[in-house]
Design a protein that fits this description.
single chain; Four Helix Bundle (Hemerythrin (Met), subunit A); mainly alpha; 6 helices
């Protein structure tokens, strides 16, 4: 199976998270809340597209793999991703506009650091432990 599309999506997600992470203090958050809200919207779109691709192409193939270890790895990743998707959706709702970002820039910085760390960990795990199973 060709994983180039999902790996490209990973790079796009990482690029957007890097841009969002470049705002590192409360003053920057307040001054650039609108730009950050646009980046968050783009990130949410990329993540939703990525999850749809995984749900349609990657996970069904791995869930039916003849090797039980592959199936177990896939099931574990699917459970973990469900939790991360819920956490990201809650984060997105909490900061769905510039006003919400500006309202508490310190909390935004903390929450953003946490969600970006979780996304980066997930992408790393998929790239090193899941997608090689498709080769």
């Amino acid at each position: 199976m060709d994983t180039s599309n999902v790996l490209r999506q990973h790079q796009e997600v990482l690029s957007l998270t890097s841009k969002i992470s470049s705002y590192q203090n409360q003053q920057q958050i307040k001054e650039k809340a609108f730009e950050i809200s646009l980046l968050l919207g783009q990130l949410a779109g990329k993540i939703k597209t990525h999850l749809a691709a995984e749900d349609k192409f990657v996970y069904p193939r791995l869930m039916n793999h003849p090797d039980s270890q592959v199936r177990m790895t896939c099931e574990k990743f699917a459970r973990e991703m469900g939790d991360l998707a819920k956490a990201f959706n809650a984060y997105q709702a909490r900061y769905s506009g510039a006003g919400k970002i500006e309202a508490d820039p310190a909390k935004f910085l903390t929450d953003t650091g946490n969600i970006i760390s979780a996304l980066m960990t997930r992408i790393e795990k998929e790239n090193t432990s899941l997608y090689p199973l498709l080769a």
